[in-house]
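During the no-cost extension, the postdoctoral fellow (Dr. R.K.) reprocessed legacy sequence entries with the updated structure-token encoder. One reprocessed record is reproduced below for audit purposes.
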Amino acid sequence: MPITVQDVIDKLTEPVEHIQNTVDTLKAGDPAAEVIGIATAFMATHKVIEQTIALGANLLITHEGIYFSHHDHTEDLEKDPVYNEKRRLITESGLAIYRFHDYWHRYKPDGIMTGLIEALGWQSHIVENHPAASIVSIPPMTLAEISEHIKRRLGIPSLRFTGDLAMKCKHIGLLAGYRGGGSLCIPLFEQESLDLIIYGEGPEWETPEYVRDANDQGKKRNLIVLGHAESEQPGLNYLAQCLQTMFPSIPTYFIPVEQVLQVI
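Re-encoded structure tokens follow.
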């Protein structure tokens, strides 16, 4: 019996109670189309769409929006050539694109965090999974050693940090994606007795400045900023593995995106 786009969507959303006003909708394509191949990616970039088509897949599952905003508002892009070229490529290809953001974060544990922790090799060091953060306790390593470990495991050429590279860290808070705001991160340092927080991205005037003040006061705190895609991509690789288990007869691919902001 053919597996349709809607069958895949239903299977993915099944473990989570229905979410009202979610961004997780089918952005393009026919829900009744038979799925002949699935690709997952952090974002449906123009290049990712071309790669999906080249692989012979007709369903792309992406974590972030297609058109450069969380809610995919396109009213101001109607005359933009980049938007129109991308939309043309999607339309002419017949590709189905499903955004899997809110539901994947609502898995228990969070699917994005599970992928990140597995990529870092810290599965056995989990202390607790909060809704928006995971706490791990690793064998003591210096901040410099942890940074090298992250770069090697995630394939990231460079990281941003504030703190003391020589300080040994053990208790770590992990927050993927845009969860680096002070209201979430700052209380974690005290509540969980953290030496280090690692997050994807957040306002630079909040948590980083708190860490700066803490260290100026002699209270040792450390922060590593991965980048949004860099922190969430492992969760899409993990999703591809889950989909291959769910639908073993359908070829499934993970398409990584390159680091968008480079260092001069």
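Residues 11 and 162 are 42 Å apart (CA to CA). The domain at 5-106+231-254 is CATH 3.40.1390.30 (Udp-n-acetylmuramoylalanyl-d-glutamate--2,6- Diaminopimelate Ligase; Chain: A, domain 1). The remaining legacy entries will be reprocessed before the final report is submitted.
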